[in-house]
Amino acid sequence: MHGAGHLLEVFFLLLAAQFMGWLFRRFNQPAVIGEVLAGVLVGPALLGLAHEGEILEFMAELGAIFLLFMVGLETRLRDILAVGREAFLVAVLGVAFPFVGGYFFGLAIGFDQLPSLFLGTALVATSVGITARVLQELGVLSRAYSRIILGAAVIDDVLGLIVLAVVNGVAQSGTLELGTALRITLLSVVFVGSAVLLVPLVRRIPFHALPVGSPFGFALLVGIGLASLAATIGLAPIVGAFLAGMLLAEVREELHLEEPVQAIESFLAPIFFAMVGVRLELSALASASILLYGSMVLLIALLGKLLGGFLGALSQGFRRAVVVGVGMAPRGEVGLIVAALGLAAGAVNEEEYALVLFMVVGTTLLAPLFLRPSITWAERAPEPKASQEPLDEARG
């Protein structure tokens, strides 16, 4: 397709995403749902005005990167560390419950062991971009429950990657590849740990003396650089982008970073969410068995994360623990990647892939619908003192 064709696709995606996002906000619903449905509207499933392709896929990935970079800019490390125990528990339980549930459900409906393992693995990873957009819209990113969700999402991604490495190794070689899992674990811990250790040093950097056009230019280098490094070692690029934002959060006011980053994010993030809808194949979800079994997998996916998040964050109080559980529920591209790897390896068939597709679409649309009212409900309860202190320090 020539350049004009690509520009038209971007135009139609943005037009639909902006209008649908505005429409959903008018009805007091998360704009992200409208943006996803905008992709369905202009995508191959309906109007056929936008299609999957390298350029749109790359722009969508940049959208996810800048969304999490922006979220990272609004999140200070000390706030994440203040809820570190809860974030770790939420991540571990939120990986264990869906994986076990998906695996045993697969066996119960007649899947072989390997497809059941892939089904469990596809239920593991949270798509934090969807939750982050809702938290951002509602202005609650500074709340303790938001910090738990964001911290857990980073740990969740590392754990999910380890599970995927092990299961994919079994599919490829028929044996358990512990060496691969250990290598990925070590690289992931070193990557995340190094970013955390660099936070105290950020304020010592002479930004205005750096050989770059502007502090914002340097911020872009850090954001894209850490996203690229994360992708190189096998982590999701959004993990690197979030950590980059968290590094620069220490100097965001002095360097005036929020406004320019938000300008780029407001352009690219809707494309990311709209592309979720563009990828949707309505025909794959049409059969009665897919609707039945897909609904059951969707229920397992929602309950697994809800239960894991709730139990892990119970120290924050009942209502906020519910918010954490709901916030961890959306799945996204990681689930589809897992299913696609299984399909390529011959470990799953088209029907089993469609179950994962149904689950991803369902959690993407349902979780934001439940997240907004659950946050409103939680905000009516007083904030626990333990979670207020870091926030008060940040304001001071």
Automatic annotation (TrEMBL):
Q: Which domain of life is it from?
A: Bacteria
An example Gene Ontology biological process: sodium ion transport
Enumerate the InterPro entries for this protein. Cation/H_exchanger_TM, Na+/solute_symporter_sf
Q: Give the UniProt keywords, A-Z.
A: Antiport, Ion transport, Membrane, Sodium, Sodium transport, Transmembrane, Transmembrane helix, Transport
Per the record, the major location class is membrane
**Where in this chain does the record put each Cation/H+ exchanger transmembrane domain?**
15-373
Subcellular location(s) of the protein:
Membrane
Describe its membrane topology. Multi-pass membrane protein
Its transmembrane ranges are 6-24, 31-49, 55-75, 87-111, 117-136, 148-170, 182-202, 209-227, 290-314, 321-347, 353-371
Q: Which named protein is this?
A: Na(+)/H(+)-K(+) antiporter GerN
Species: Calidithermus roseus
